[in-house]
Every structure is written in structure tokens, then in C-alpha cells.
Amino acid sequence: MRNVIARLFPADEQAAPQPAPVAAAEPAPARQPVGIIDIGSNSVRLVAYEARARAPTPIFNEKVLCGLGRGLVTTGELPEEGVDRALKALRRFRILGEFMQLADMQVVATAAAREAKNGAAFLAAAEEAIGTKIELLSGRREAELSALGVLSAIYKPDGIVGDLGGGSLELIKVKRSRIGKGASLPLGGLALMDASNRSPRQAAKIVREAIGDAKALKSLSGRTFYAVGGTWRALARLHMRQRNYPLNIMHNYTIPVRDAVDFLSLIERVDSDALVSIGAVSAARRPLLAYGAVALDEIIRRTKPKEIVISVAGVREGLLYERLDKATRKEDALIAAARDFNVLRSREPEHGEELFAWIDAFMRSTGLNEESPEEVRLRHAACLLADIGWRGHPDYRGEQSLYMIANASIVGIDHPGRAFIALVIAFRYEGPEESLAPELRTLVSSRLLDRARILGAAMRVAYIASAGTAGVLPRTPMLCGRGLVNLTLPPEFADLASERLQNRLQRLARLIGRDAMIRTE
Q1: How far is Cα 119 from Cα 414, in angstroms, rounded to an integer?
Q2: Which of 69, 305, 399, 449 is 20 to 30 A from 286, alpha carbon to alpha carbon?
Q3: Tell me: the pLDDT tens digits for 258-283?
Q4: Where are the beta strands (DSSP E) in 441-494?
Q5: Are strands 135-136 and 515-520 parallel, antiparallel or unpaired?
Q6: What pTM was estimated for this model as a whole?
Q7: Who contacts 342 (Cβ-Cβ below 8 Å, separation ≥6)?
Q8: Residue 382: how many CA atoms within 13 Å on its side-chain side?
Q9: Distance in angstroms (rounded) separating the CA atoms of residues 5 and 321
Q10: pLDDT tens across 346-381, in order?
Q11: Is the dihedral of CA 382, 384, 386, 389 positive or negative?
């Protein structure tokens, strides 16, 4: 280690040339696990994913807070202790990658290694430690990857992505599937703490001057600011706990701007250890909270966005997304994730798709208010997830399914949508009359709650008629007409008619103001 440190900190060292960008590796084989290591200014993290897919599922996630960017503004060099911790982490991650038999390992480094005088020497030692090439990201490239990460995980985003790291803040426009030109500002949490001599008030002046000419922020007014990065996630978690929010999922958590301003002002002026629910934030992250709050507060005051939305997807997810083929990129991440759950947990995955088509025809026949495209995609996902709790004890399937969906690692869905799907599946098991999960119901509108009851009741009819097996629902249509909900059975299925099936059909019919009939023809 002493030899490595000596190489990193030679006497009178001049600014080292940056290594050339590393060419992208060939895509990993389908359905084999892949890994990404992000060497950031504050932490070094390994995330392994089940596969390179439209809705990738993390199978391992480990972070080591190294503080490579600590003191960089004043010394111009990566700190010796941080370098030592980072190299130890990389050697550990190399072995873990071998354990998991990762088909591909991408390693990227960001602002600290980019800006430090001893950055090139560190990267050489880091490549030796991890055993593969490391791509040193430019500020613009880092911003673009953050935007791709948001595209991959948020449905039809429209606004500005801000990725706050330890050394820099990347900003870039995003609208649906398009991204703008990225910009990088030296406003990371560690950088601000050093440049301001640990004064949040002075840090606010630095941020104010730096963002004044930031072109990427010019069009943010009235749109969404997508906040990426560990410090902003920590702030959001603290906000969530103080509100006693009913979900623990951080992705797509929304903070209204008015609430955000008051909350951020509190963070800036109060010692972090005195804050309510500060236990939700790691001790190592707490010193950066005030500087993350300063940066976000100044952005809000200067640009007046509509809302702040937290994205847990950033550079790492952007790296995965950019290697997907065009057809896979166009897939809906929510539906892709629901299909994965369906395949893994349902009795017959084909039944989920048949259920969607079966209820689709029923909904069109009801004459109810037309569903929006967003409501249709939520219904599609709910149908794919309808049978994931079947292995649970019958008395607890509804509760287990509800909390499984409420806390599942799925993307492409906001919190009201997540609560809606969870309630649909709970009603599917427990019945539409049950008063389930009052805390989750606060997240959905009256319209969505009504739809959840109707869909849950329809699923109860479908599952008792088909036993969850494929091939039955296409032959047993359920449609509305002349004040009735009609379930039609072919002659060979006539004996399926029963008092229990009639009762479930009647309960569904009452929800839409109809009567019920089972017909054989």
C-alpha cells in the first residue's frame, strides 16, 4: 500500500493528464447478472443486477463512504485516507463480482478523479485493484447518463435532472425520451463544504453565483426537478419520516415546492443532530445535508419548478439503459417489471395477460367514465400482479400482496399509482367491501379508490371461474348490457355456475349499479 500511496502523492506533482475514454464493452449475454461500480467523490458503490433488462432488479448493493473529494477544493488532491479506503473497497468488489459470476463489470469514475492532480495515478491503481478498465466520465457524459437513468425509471419525465454528488452538480433537460446537453457545476456537497469553509450561508452565495448562468435551468419554471444523488435522497428520507409518510419507497417521492422551501430552510439553520427523525440518515451523510439543502433551495428560489421528484435511478441505471436495443428501450418499465413478477410468482403467467384482455372488454362495456391511458397501464400492471400472493396463507394473502407491491423494487410508477395497484390486489383477495390499508388510501383519489374496488371485484370473479388457469377467460366473457353484468359460459363449462360464483358476480355488479346474471350459450 505504501508504494501505491507514494505513486499517488509524488513530491511537486503537476496536474496529471486524464486517461482517454474507454470504449464501451460488448453487451452482456441476456439474463446473466451484470455489475456497475461508481467511484464517486463521496462513495464507491457496487450494484449487481439480475440482468441487463428494461426493468433491472438489483441483487446486491454495497456502498463504502470514502470521501475521495474531501478537501479537494483546497488541496487539489485526493486524500490519502480516502484513496486507501477506495482501493480496499475495489479489491473487495472484485472478489464479490467473481462470487456472483457477473457477465460484465462496468466501472466509472466521476468528479473527484476527474479534477484531482493525482487523479490519473489513482485511476491506474484503481484499475489494478478492480482488474478492469475504468471509464472516467466527463461532466457532460455524467449528466447524460443521469438523464438516461431517469428516462429508464420514470414514466414520461418532463423537466430538469439534477444529479448532486460530492464534487459536482450535473444538470440536464429531459422530456419523454429526449435529453438535452448536460452541464456540470462544481457544487457537490463536499466541494461546497470545502469552498465555503463549512458555512452554509457562504455556500448559498457560491451556489447563487454558479447557477445564475446555467442554461439547463432556464426552462425549469413550472416543470419538474428530478433530484438524483445520495444527499438529496437523504433529505427526502428525512422529509418522508417527519411527515409520517405511508410508504418507505424513495423512488418517485414527490415534495411540493412550497413544502420544500420551508423544509430546506429548516435544514440549513438547524444542527442536523437536533432534527426530528435524523436517525433515518446515516451519521456519515449528516454533515452534507445542509449543503445539499442550500443547493436545492437556491435552485427552487431561482427557477420556481412545479415540484421536486426524487429519482433513485441515475448514472448506473443510465449505463444499463444505453446498452439496451431500441425495441427494449421503448418498453414500458412498469409493465416489464410486472411481467417479471408475474413469471416468477404466478401460477400460470399467461393468465395475467388474459385477465387484462378479459377485464378490458368488461370495462369498455360498462359505460363508466373512460379510462385515461395512465389508468389503463396501471390496470395492465395490476392484472399481471394479481396472482403473486397465491403461495401465502389464505388468511393473509391480501395483506402480504398489498405490502409486497407497496414496497416492491419496481419503477415507472408514481406513489399514487403504486398504492392503487396494491389496493386492487388486496381487494382481489379480501373483497371490495373491506376497509383496507387506510394509510395507503390517503395517496389515491376517490376515483382511483372506486376503480380499485371494481377491478378487485372483477378479479375475484375471474379467479373463481378459472382457478387461475390459462385458456378459460377467453371463452367466458363478462360484459354489461341492459342493466346487467352478464357472465357467459360455453355449454361445456355450464357446471362452473355456482352460488359462490353468482355471489361474487353480484358484488361486482352492485359496485357499478347493475344486477348480475350467469348465462350458458
Answers
A1: 39
A2: 305
A3: 999 999 999 988 887 777 778 878 88
A4: 478-481, 484-489
A5: unpaired
A6: 0.89
A7: 349, 352, 384, 385, 387, 388
A8: 32
A9: 36
A10: 999 999 999 999 999 999 999 887 899 999 999 999
A11: negative
